[in-house]
User: Which sequence fits this backbone?
């Protein structure tokens, strides 16, 4: 029964079928794992006068005038009645169910449960009716009074076409049919008992039909643990499989990185130095490195990447002493790829190696034969040949270009800048013909709370660059109230007049998936750009950037910004402003209340590149700036802010469900570091003992299903 389709067990109407499909609830198991978003007390009952459209209502009263009639439009037979309580009367309607009217008696005392519908005049649609022995007497007050059996009932996430009541009913039915007897707990019983988590069967009843609030909470905690545990088991299995694969060991990685550091015009921060040491150690040992390097914009991740890449391009593959091992460097945009290519040419220019750049519009090679201090254009075919033959030691390009198109001869090190979705599959695509696993360094400036990092990047080791190079002027951040707007534009104009550039970020309209962009947002960018052109920033060159532009148009706009052919770039936040413009010193963020703190911090990072003093103006469309926004002005780094966000706004707000692949219950786990760490420990122990889940078929199946859900794979 567990794995049979829901549709086998219930007669469903089309809208309900569609709703189930949308929710991806196919089997009875899926149905049981569809958890309520909250609970209501039956004590939350209301009166006719207190009905609100769209709410689930519980009413006590007397049935009046039950009758069968034909529906107004469809002419289908239906039932109707009135419910009367001390405060008024409301219509009850049952569509397609003419027999119900026949079962109701005028004057019967009942309890009615159902959804309140209707625009002008409210009615209760398809309510459940239970006879009651007596109505609360003594007037309205006792009607409102505490009912005898204060039950909790589950409210499921709102979806068009299907009601909470349907879920309660359907789940009750499958539970009564004995489905629990067929359930196997994917959590080992040693684990549930160690953390005092309810076993699966109890938890399923408690989550859907709790008697007490505490039972529901215990059940949710258990399912949160289960979800994180299953993700972690998957991650550790990946890691285990990877660790079985041989890699390229660079014995004197440390020596090379040390040499590189002496060539740099600055000394590394302690955090950078530690990161370089750690990575050099990883490169000099087996299995292959898999590391995530987190650091705010400007914390110097590139220097870490370069120092460690230096060890690779100074090492020869086995048996070919005159050749070098290869590095792939992947940037999120073509312009960033070009910028990185240029800095690598400077940093590695003294070495007898060649560096390549792959973009969709053209390719480059360094050094040029004619002038060894510069790069030269080459055809893509030619470049790809040189990479395949091993003549080019380092290739820089975008993620998609490199992992889809480029064949390497001796790839030993893959560096990925700001790409979260680079998973096992992509990495496998880069794997070498001889089966040797290249080392992987993934870098991100996105501040991720620790629990989320541990959960989603559980297969990576984590290094955090928690400090900035010395001498940086922190961005001056100001929360701007309405009256201070004119002064802000004055200040920005002053910056522009002295030859600087600026960004204006337009508000995000609330969206479940922050990566999607709506027409409304584009409109707000275009409208604001227009307004600024006519009003405060009249006479300046204003460009726009939004997600509905074609990739080539976006690239062109960013190029124009970089070349200072644009003074002010008006953009949406979802667009990765994928270019470093050191000349940009001001950023105006409109509608800031819609952003998480960590996001705001990242946007602010756009102007951190500058050697000039930079300014960030935070504006809200609501009246008063919140304490939250004020925290932005004082916070030290993005990681603190990410943790703060998690506390204040909750994980669901922070990372859209679609983006993380976690359910709402799984998201709840992210607030609980102890729980996440415990799930990790247990997953690790289990995989160490049974690396391919030989003895745990169900768990293997769940791990597989889960990894398909996660976007990162
Ligand atoms: P990230 O990639 O983390 O945003 P970058 O590696 O691009 O940061 O570094 C930003 C700037 O700071 C670069 O111009 C770089 O040369 C410089 N930089 C990096 N590390 C240091 C350091 N330890 N001391 C001084 N300047 C540094
Ligand atoms: Mg960088």
Assistant:
């Amino acid at each position: 029964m567990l794995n049979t389709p829901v549709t086998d067990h219930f007669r469903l109407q089309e809208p309900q079928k569609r709703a189930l499909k949308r929710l991806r609830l196919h089997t009875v198991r899926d149905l049981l794992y569809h958890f309520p978003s909250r609970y209501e007390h039956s004590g939350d009952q209301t009166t006719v006068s207190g009905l609100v459209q769209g709410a689930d209502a519980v009413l006590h009263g007397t049935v009046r005038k039950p009758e069968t009639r034909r529906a107004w439009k469809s002419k289908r037979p239906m039932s109707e009645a009135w419910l009367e309580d001390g405060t008024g009367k409301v219509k009850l309607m049952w569509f397609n169910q003419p027999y119900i009217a026949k079962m109701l008696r005028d004057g019967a005392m009942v309890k009615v449960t159902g959804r309140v519908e209707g625009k002008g005049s409210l009615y209760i649609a398809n309510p459940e009716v239970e006879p009651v022995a007596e109505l609360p007497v003594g007037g309205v007050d006792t009607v409102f009074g505490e009912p005898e059996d204060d039950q909790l009932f589950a409210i499921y996430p709102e979806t068009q076409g299907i009601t909470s009541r349907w879920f309660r009913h359907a789940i009750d039915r499958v539970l009564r049919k004995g489905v629990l007897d067929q359930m196997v707990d994917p959590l080992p019983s040693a684990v549930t008992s160690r953390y005092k988590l309810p076993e699966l069967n109890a938890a399923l009843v408690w989550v859907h039909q709790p008697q007490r609030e505490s039972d529901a909470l215990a059940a949710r905690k258990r399912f949160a643990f289960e979800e994180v545990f299953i993700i972690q088991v998957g991650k550790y299995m990946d890691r285990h499989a990877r660790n079985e694969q041989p890699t390229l060991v660079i014995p004197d990685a440390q020596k090379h990185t040390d040499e590189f550091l002496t060539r740099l015009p600055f000394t590394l921060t302690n955090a950078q130095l530690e990161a370089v040491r750690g990575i050099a150690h990883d490169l000099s040992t087996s299995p292959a490195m898999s590391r995530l390097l987190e650091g705010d914009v400007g914390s110097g991740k590139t220097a870490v990447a370069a120092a460690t890449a230096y060890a690779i391009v100074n090492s020869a593959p086995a048996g070919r002493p005159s050749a070098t091992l290869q590095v792939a460097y992947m940037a999120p945009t073509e312009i960033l790829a070009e910028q990185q290519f240029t800095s690598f040419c400077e940093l590695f220019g003294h070495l007898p190696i060649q560096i390549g750049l792959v973009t969709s519009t053209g390719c480059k090679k360094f050094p040029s034969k004619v002038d060894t201090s510069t790069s030269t254009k080459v055809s893509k075919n030619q470049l790809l040949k040189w990479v395949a033959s091993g003549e080019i030691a380092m290739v820089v390009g975008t993620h998609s270009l490199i992992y889809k198109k480029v064949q390497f001869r001796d790839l030993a090190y893959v560096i990925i800048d700001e790409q979260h979705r680079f998973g096992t599959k992509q990495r496998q695509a880069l794997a070498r013909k001889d089966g040797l696993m290249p080392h992987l360094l993934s870098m991100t400036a996105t501040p991720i709370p620790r629990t989320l990092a541990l959960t989603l990047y559980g297969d990576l080791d984590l290094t955090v660059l928690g400090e900035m190079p010395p001498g940086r002027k922190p961005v001056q951040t100001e929360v701007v109230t309405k009256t201070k707007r004119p002064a802000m534009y004055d200040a920005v104009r002053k910056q522009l007049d002295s030859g600087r550039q600026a960004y204006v970020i337009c508000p995000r309209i609330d969206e479940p998936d922050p990566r999607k962009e709506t027409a409304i947002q584009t409109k707000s960018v275009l409208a604001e750009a227009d307004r600024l052109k006519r009003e405060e920033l009249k006479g300046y060159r204003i460009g726009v950037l939004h997600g509905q532009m074609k990739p080539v148009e976006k690239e062109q706009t960013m190029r124009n910004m970089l070349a200072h052919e644009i003074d002010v770039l008006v953009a949406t936040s979802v667009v990765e402003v994928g270019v470093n413009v050191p000349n940009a010193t001001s950023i105006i963020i409109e509608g800031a209340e819609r952003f998480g703190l960590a996001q705001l911090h990242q946007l602010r990072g756009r102007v951190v590149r500058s050697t000039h003093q930079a300014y960030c103006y935070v504006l809200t469309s609501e009246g008063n700036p919140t304490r939250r926004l004020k925290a932005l002005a004082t916070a030290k780094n993005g990681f603190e802010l990410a943790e703060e966000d998690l506390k204040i706004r909750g994980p669901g707000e922070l990372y859209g469900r679609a983006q993380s692949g976690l359910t709402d219950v799984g998201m709840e786990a992210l607030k609980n570091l102890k729980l996440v760490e415990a799930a990790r420990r247990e997953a690790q122990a289990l995989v160490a003992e049974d690396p391919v889940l030989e003895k745990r078929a169900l768990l293997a199946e769940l791990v597989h299903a889960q990894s398909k859900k996660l976007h990162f794979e």
Observations:
- Residues 136-148, 510-514 have pLDDT under 50 and may be disordered.
- Residues 301-302, 417 surround magnesium ion (ligand 2) (CB under 6 Å).
- The two ends are 30 Å apart (CA to CA).
- Residues 253-285+300-444 form a domain with the Rossmann fold fold (CATH 3.40.50.300).
